[in-house]
Amino acid sequence: MTLMEAVLALALLAILLIFVSGLFLRLLAGSEKSGDLTAGAMLAESILQEHCADGRFLSSANQRRLLYNRDGSQAEEFLYQVTCTRLAPAIYYVDVEVSWSGGSRQGQGQLKTRLGRLASP
Amino acid sequence: MSARRKGIALVTVLLVAAVLAMLATAMVSLNRNGFLTLGQYQDRSRTVQACYAGLDYARGKILQDGAWGLTPFDDAKVPGLNVVQAMVVESGAAPDLNVVDGELPKDGSRFQLRIVNNLANRYALPAPEWSRCGVAIPPRTAFVAVDGMCEGNRRHMEVLLARKVGVGVGIYAGKDLAIRLASAGPNKVLSFSSTRPRGNHVNVNNKVLLPATANVDFGTTAARGRLQSGQDTLIDTDFAFDSNGDAGTPSSGRSLMGDAALAKQASQDLKATVYTGAPPSPPKFQPDQLKQASAPQPLAPGTYRFINHETVSFTPEGSGSPQLYVGSVPVGSARVRLGEYRFMPEGNIQVNGNLTLVGEQTKMEVSGDQMVATETSAMPVSLAVGYGAKGLPLSFDAAGTDTATKERFTVSGNLTIKGDMVGSGQLFVQKNAQGGGRLKVEGNSLLSATRTDGMAVVAEDSVHFEDVNSMAALQPFAMMTNEFDLYSQAMQPDAFTAKQNTILNDWQGQTTANIIEVVGNDDSPANTLRGRPVGNYDPILQEMAPGFVTQAGTSLIGTLVSVPQGPPGNVVDTTMTAKDLIEAYVQEVSFNQGGMTLGRHTRVREFIKSVDRGAPNPALLSVWHPGAQVAGLTSVGLSDTTYNSYSDSILTMVANQVSAYNQDARLEGKRLMQYMSGANPYSNGQRFDFIFGGILYAQKNIYAHLASKFNLLGSMLSAEGTVGFDDLTGGRVVYDPNSFEEQFDLSKAGLAAQFFWMAP
Predict the structure, then answer these.
(1) Do the Cβ atoms of B8 and A121 come within 8 Å?
(2) How far is B209 from chain A (nearest CA, A)?
(3) What number does CATH give the domain A36-119?
(4) What is the per-residue pLDDT across B657-712, written as a single tens digit (0 to 9) for each?
(5) Rounded to whole angstroms, how far apart are CA atoms B664 and B84?
């Protein structure tokens, strides 16, 4: 093993580790986002069902719901807003938007999801 | 370092790199799969939401228009919605080709729906060919099938929508339910059942006071009974009602609360699950959920007294001069029609003050060659709400469609009816400054052919039922017990066309035109009920008036009537006995007019009752020209009658009689033809039963003191008070939402899923 070889090997290893570390960090962030998105989508579906079943069709903003999503000992805050638009007599469009971690984070992009449908009393 | 070790560092690093690459690939793949799964979950969620969107679009359209889907949408693709959130197009050249296509651009999803609207019908429809679950469509439901689509995902949903009437029990009492029998005994006296799987329920907020468990039975249908009380349920009770209809403290009785063994035994005996100490949720019924009426017309308060079948003497409340009305009482742009002792408000009529409806009959006897008045006695009258011009329930005219309004009669004060209330309209008894809100009424006899069937009664105070007047047997619509056999014979399936048989089997809610197609417009022998021959008439006549003495003891031989003699256009009055008139009529129609028919029998029956009431009506029997249209019988005080007079009355009587049999069939859980093919279930002992069909709601007590049995087909609710049955000899409570659902305004009651089926 020559010095040259050792330097080359170490350099390659360093590059590899940096690349893999970066990749793993991104995968970790992606996994976090996927988990949060799943929770957010389920929350949006649940809130949509609640509002459609309620039948009052009242819009609301900055509502919060705490979910134990990633950490069983620490709840994560999800914010949601519901927009109910009357399209015709007895027909509404209910739109639920759920966001978390401020709605976006560097490297994770948009941290929000939405779901909507027609609804009637 | 040997030459063999040359390059090992690089190789090692490359190996590590390879392992890390594989690990990273696996991790990336896992991560990607996570996102793909999430994406699929979201797409599936949007697909399901698209199904719900389609369902709710249909629901919203039906809430606005109960007949939505009954007519072709339009082949020109009518935009139901065209906004940024949703684009919906309705198309179809025929109701069974109607399709709705919807797109939700924000969600990237679409839906397509089809509908069978059976909300206004009282009978089930078969599943449409395009249904995948193949479930029959029950009466008063709408069947909606929706396909939801999103990014290659597809879901199919089939739903039955029904009105949310907020009433799910036969009886609800906000206070107590108290039942006191006329006499103790081991037999079943009171039964509860339901036409729905869930609904054989009695909910009571406080106490339940029952007689012996052997007297009460919830097990007449497969629907399991439930008796739920917020406090205690006592059996074998002995108590008395006070004048308000509240139950006093029982002097004896056994408590089921806290006695598990006794409660278990009682549950078995009653065939119901008994809950004690479990306050039930009150029904969500609100009177404002009922359909509205047109603008009200004011009717003067006071006492309206029938002095014959179509004449009323009015005494105003407070000051004012009495008035006499014949045929009708004008009420603004509306009127109250008077006929056959029925007080028939049309449209929406409101009385601001107390109202009393009574009737009387004056006996006439022969004195020399004249008829003179002898004694006057009370005659029960009917408050008839929801009848059309021919005297048939308006619900017939509205069959197949969901009417926006209902006929309503409102009394802002107290309402007293010395008789019965009948029909399918709405009766509101409201409070006013002086109190009011109390309804006091006698019941209608089981042998009355006019019934409360689909009626909604709302009283803001209490409702009090009294014994049915024995004179009810002489009411124009009173049936005879043996007439069941005549109708049974007349309604043989092979005697009618296929369409007539279908109409008979699905009698409730048929259109007036269909009713007339079966009943007929005249009494001549024909392929109609009125025209059906009745065979040898002597025994029938003998049963109605043995020895020519009526049931009320009036001699037909000793009653003189003034009748027109001669052909039409040559009318000369002549006087003869009631017996001679009947015999002449029977002879004429038997030998010259094709024979006695059911319609002609109804005329004889009504003529005999008119004799019994002291006001013989010979115009019912047209001796020389039955059915001939001739104007003018002014000589007997009937200016607008003809030889074929009372044809609509006979039509109404026969049609209502079939309706009464149909209601009794429903009480037995049978179809009409099935019921009519059985043994005659009527006897004179049942003549004074009390019957109510529809929804009865009182803010305070509902108290019934009945000399005989009662039958309830529908629901009875007391919001804050006691439901009490005093002196009871028998009764049936059949929870049947079909009998009152039509009263509810769809847009206020809403629609709920009665059946839900989803598949990929």
Answers:
(1) no
(2) 38
(3) 3.30.1300
(4) 999 999 899 888 888 989 999 999 888 766 677 889 999 999 999 999 987 788 88
(5) 55
